[in-house]
Design brief:
Elements: H1 13-16, H2 38-57, H3 76-87, H4 95-115, H5 122-135, E1 137-138, E2 142-143, E3 146-147, E4 154-155, H6 159-173, H7 194-209, H8 216-229, E5 236-243, E6 251-258, H9 272-292, H10 299-318, H11 334-339, H12 341-355, H13 365-376, H14 391-410, H15 437-454, H16 470-478, H17 484-498, H18 510-527
Antiparallel strand pairs: 1-4, 2-3, 5-6
Helix pairs in contact: 2-13, 2-14, 2-15, 3-4, 3-5, 3-14, 5-6, 5-7, 7-9, 8-9, 9-10, 9-12, 12-14, 16-17
């Protein structure tokens, strides 16, 4: 979630020849190198651009973003949306971002004065702190073509926001309970959990970067808490090291690690999202403690934290998944599994970005997660809940899902943020005719998604002719999609290219569509 480099369409084709496809099935390390292909970057850029457009349309008149939880979390949803806008570089003087910040400042003061801080939540305050810090970030100068990273960025908070952040920092620090955090202490009955704790630590990290003092014992106590909360034992898991040689897709391996996860609370069964939250939290604490070097932070503790981080990543590798929650069988209802899926992907990005893990076991975690999100994005640019969640919760949580998806794709936790800026409005379709089949699949996906979302106002249907005969079979495959929008876009392009119809109706039943598709398959084979 940080700056996206500009892209020039005519320059990327040669690079794309060397890199991996977007449409392959999930596989091990030998299939995908650690460097994200240019084809993937283009697809991600398009998805981010469309997602941000969707998000900006959700702002209401008072500057807030509301997805169904605003009554219980007056700050949370708007703060998450503002943080997402900042992640994707839609901020600074942007009216939507500034309106959101204005709502957060006003709402915080209102809740503080009217409710005596009782209605403040750890999630909302922590996210507001992060959003306000991002509003004042001044990126460090570049060295060569790469940034020096977020640790070298500068901040000009201004008097009002500095005072506001100092007050929020004091309130949040007051919620600490032996190194962990809960919903407000005043609510009672809800003990500390690792989700609230992760957000609190991320907020403290942000304000510390901006020059606001955070009590050092916060990070020390949190480190001790997570070391105690991690599972004591787990299966041995191989840990990939570096590529054996430049350009190689074969990995060396480090000594095995124990797959030890984290639960929602100490003693609870380990889950994917909470293990990722534990890894991210330990990484934040270790970063701070290694910088400040308090006397209580010993070499032995540093080594235990390193082992805890690596064993947490080993757990994520042992249970790796991006298309579902990697939780114990029967741990949660299908409702819960669907509800927290995008949140899990968000925590996975935090864990890997903050710990510096390029891979999770043999898996290129970003490639696999990004590919899943590209396929899951809806025509309007948002990400919906899974179908196993009630319709009411689907409507409530689309805002959260879209933010979490965009935070994953934009890789906010990576200081060098290897994602490009918007791919722009022009794609050199003719240049794709020279690509290999695998590279062609990546390019076709970008072009088709753009046409599906923009219609003739973007890429013209007739322009697909310049992709050559290979495009016909890809378009026919889309006629079999379960998504009506996919079918409608594909048949429109095919009709423009062939001037034939074969009776295909995207709204017809599956049997009727199948009969028409047979004719289209035959035509595609004859014209390939």
């Amino acid at each position: 979630m940080r700056p996206l480099m500009s892209f020039v369409c005519l320059s990327w084709v040669c690079v794309l020849l060397l890199l991996s496809p977007l449409s392959a099935q999930p596989s091990k390390a030998k299939a995908h190198p650690d460097v994200i292909s240019q084809g993937m970057k283009i697809a991600v850029d398009d998805a981010v651009r469309r997602g941000i457009q969707w998000l900006k349309r959700k702002k209401i008149r008072d500057g807030s973003f509301r997805g169904g939880l605003t009554g219980s979390y007056p700050l949370g949803e708007t703060a998450l949306a503002c943080l997402t806008l900042a992640a994707c570089q839609e901020f600074r003087n942007g009216p939507v971002f500034q309106a959101g910040l204005g709502y957060l400042r006003q709402t915080y003061r209102r809740v503080r004065s009217e409710d005596g801080l009782v209605a403040l939540k750890t999630y909302g305050v922590a996210l507001t702190m992060m959003a306000l810090v991002e509003a004042h970030r001044q990126p460090a100068p570049k060295i060569g073509s790469r940034r020096t990273g977020v640790r070298g960025d500068r901040f000009d908070l201004g008097k009002n926001d500095r005072e506001l952040l100092q007050e929020m920092t004091e309130w949040l620090a007051g919620q600490a309970q032996s190194g962990s955090f809960s919903y407000p202490i005043s609510e009672g009955g809800l003990g500390p959990d690792h989700s609230n704790t992760q957000f609190a630590l991320l907020a403290f990290r942000a304000v510390n970067d901006a020059g606001i003092e955070v009590p050092g014992e916060i990070f020390l106590d949190a480190a001790r808490h997570f070391l105690r909360a991690q599972e004591d034992r787990g299966p041995q898991v191989l840990r990939p090291g570096k590529m054996l040689r430049p350009g190689s897709r074969s990995l060396s391996y480090l000594p095995p690690g124990k797959a030890r996860g984290f639960g929602y609370r100490k003693g609870a069964p380990a889950t994917g999202s909470m293990t990722a939250a534990g890894v991210a939290s330990l990484s934040v604490c270790r970063e701070y403690l290694r910088e400040k070097r308090p006397s209580a932070y010993t070499l032995s503790m540093d080594q235990k934290m390193e082992r805890g981080i690596q064993d947490g990543i080993a757990w994520l590798a042992h249970h790796f998944a991006v298309d579902r929650l990697p939780d114990p069988e029967g741990f949660a209802s299908s409702h819960q599994k669907g509800l927290y899926h995008y949140y899990y992907l968000y925590t996975l990005e935090r864990a890997c970005g903050l710990s510096g893990a390029v891979r999770v076991g043999d898996w290129s975690w970003y490639f696999e997660g990004a590919r899943y999100l590209l396929e899951a994005q809806q025509r309007d640019g948002g990400w919906p809940e899974r179908s196993d969640v009630s319709r009411e919760r689907q409507a409530d949580s689309v805002l959260l899902n879209t933010c979490f998806a965009l935070l994953f794709l934009s890789r906010f936790s990576d200081p060098n943020r290897p994602i490009t800026k918007s791919a722009g409005d022009n794609l050199n379709l003719a240049a794709a005719s020279t690509l290999s089949d695998e590279e062609f699949d990546s390019f076709f996906m970008v072009a088709f998604i753009r046409y599906r979302s923009e219609g003739e106002s973007g890429i013209k249907a007739a322009s697909f002719r310049s992709l050559g005969g290979r495009v016909y079979s890809r378009l026919v495959d889309r006629l079999e999609s379960k998504d009506r929008a996919d079918r409608a876009a594909a048949i429109e392009i095919l009709r423009r290219l062939s001037r034939k119809r074969f009776g295909f109706d995207p709204d017809a039943g599956e049997k009727e569509r199948t009969e028409a598709i047979r004719e289209w398959v035959k035509w595609a084979e004859e014209n390939a």
